[in-house]
Design a protein that fits this description.
Length: about 325
């Protein structure tokens, strides 16, 4: 296939590598002219200096070239950047399935990322957009370590096509028909991962982390269902699977960000120290707004939002969570 990849960060690079190793012809777009120059000279990617780049990948700053006459377009920028990037692409270029690999909810519109793309492209995009989501750290996938994720779209044909495109002996892709549940699972789990990082940073212990993950899964499920998602989807790879990985590993930027906040860093200082995008910090504001709009209580999300955006101390947030009125557990 001829594949255009939008974004040359860690995940975009990893998925481009995966496709190139399968024999696809991959063109990767980036705004970073110096990065494109270095990679076209066969220099290693700055984030993966030990990873050899196969011949099937080329790099460009030309977004038109990246999306023209392709069999598949893969998005891998940031949730905040999806709208601006897709607004630059000529609509006549978009004649193939589009895979969204970022995870988030847009702050102003409160749209999921497939909805953002559809709002830009109009009727063309109907049934052509798919999500790729699940427990998958770029640092592991790029080195061939095994995992399983899901592909989801409104179209069964597109879902199965994307699943076939990305499946390798070490990267197993299950088709999933519930793109709404998959979108919410991928977005909200990042917020819960920040909470788990905060908990571990405060040395609350493994029991507290397990409780946060379980109640966090409940928040993910409640919000997804209000948007039309299936509750059982959140028990799968794009919900619980991704949640387990993101909430318990130092490879997770969201978890690491939470630990830095617990150590006394400000939200800005923690972001600066991470040095890369922390989707949970961005999406937290969107999820908080959605919860209020839909009248869905999201206490863990609200606590994280208070710490990041309202100068609530992590210890005070913990005390407020523990002092909430006890109700019967509903799943």
């Amino acid at each position: 296939m001829k594949v255009g990849v939008l974004g040359s960060g860690s995940w975009g690079f990893t998925l481009a590598l995966l496709l190139a190793l399968k024999g696809d012809e991959v063109l990767v777009w980036s705004r970073d002219k110096e990065l494109v120059r270095l990679l076209n000279k066969k220099e290693p990617h700055p984030l993966f200096k030990d990873v050899a780049i196969p011949e099937g990948i080329k790099w460009t700053t030309d977004i038109d070239e990246t999306t023209f006459k392709k069999d598949l377009i893969l998005e891998s920028v940031t949730s905040e950047g999806v709208r601006s990037v897709f607004s630059e692409i000529p609509r006549t270029n978009l004649t193939c399935p589009i895979v969204i690999s970022s995870k988030g909810i847009e702050q102003e519109s409160l749209l999921t990322l497939p909805e953002v793309v559809e709002s830009i492209l109009g009727g063309y995009a109907k049934g052509k957009i798919a999500l790729l989501s699940g427990p998958s750290f770029a640092q592991e996938v790029v080195r061939g370590k095994p995992t399983s994720v899901v592909a989801a779209s409104e179209s069964e044909e597109v879902t199965r096509f994307v699943s076939r495109c990305f499946t390798t002996p070490s990267f197993r892709v299950y088709p999933n028909s519930d793109w709404i549940g998959v979108a919410f699972g991928g977005a909200v789990k990042n917020v819960i991962a920040v909470a788990c990082g905060l908990s571990d940073g405060l040395k609350c212990g493994a029991s507290a982390r397990a409780a946060l993950m379980t109640r966090g899964l409940h928040e993910m499920r409640k919000l997804a269902v209000t948007a039309g998602g299936k509750p059982e989807t959140l028990n799968g790879l794009s919900g619980m699977g991704d949640l387990i990985a993101t909430c318990s590993s130092t490879l997770s930027r969201n978890y690491s960000y939470g630990k830095l906040l617990a150590e006394g860093k400000s939200a800005e200082e923690a972001l600066h120290q991470i040095g890369l995008v922390v989707e949970g910090a961005y999406t937290c504001k969107s999820v908080e707004k959605l919860g209020l709009l839909k009248e869905v209580p999201l206490p863990i999300t609200s606590a994280v939002h208070g710490i990041i955006y309202k100068d609530l101390s992590p210890m005070m947030a913990l005390q407020e969570l523990m002092q909430r009125k006890v109700k019967e557990e509903h799943l």
